[in-house]
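Q: Got one fold?
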Amino acid sequence: MSILEYNGAAIIGMAGKDCVGIASDNRLGIQYQTVAMDFKKIFKMNDRLFVGLAGLATDVQTLDQLLRFRMDLYELREEREMSPKVFTNLLSNMLYEKRFGPYFCEPIIAGLDGGGSPYLATMDLIGAQAHSRDFVVAGTCEGNLYGMCETLWRPDMDKEVLFETLAQALLASVDRDALSGWGGVVHIITREGVISRELKGRQD
């Protein structure tokens, strides 16, 4: 088993019309043993930017704290919020700095850029970036997530349709993966604000 699969995860970022969504499951496990059902994998960086971290649970929490520290320094120095593009480069550089002893995390960045357009990016554990206009996925059931997203995603979805698409794609995918699941959470980022909703999933 890969160290990236040790705790289990499923994260999706998806673009809509003037909105973007990010969703994750809630399970924390040690391989096939479930430890907790409320483990946070998506972190709010600012009102227009979220990051999802799939991988080793200890590295997920470490990266979250490091990113908050770096963002606070940036905002103090620059006197403005960090844009998703700048944040992606910051995270990519942080991961590449540790490439000989990497953080075992695959991040997904979801946000709205300066013009209010959806921004999606992902990277591997040493910071190689990949950008997308439709959706990005990470976690132990990547294959399932890709299949569901390719089936359900449509261009120019509004925030309610985007939520429904994310919820259905996530729940259908984790049902076929023993390492993720136990409910989920969906965040929809719009110009007006963030809508967050909990999902109930199978508890077995």
About this structure: The longest strand covers residues 105-112.
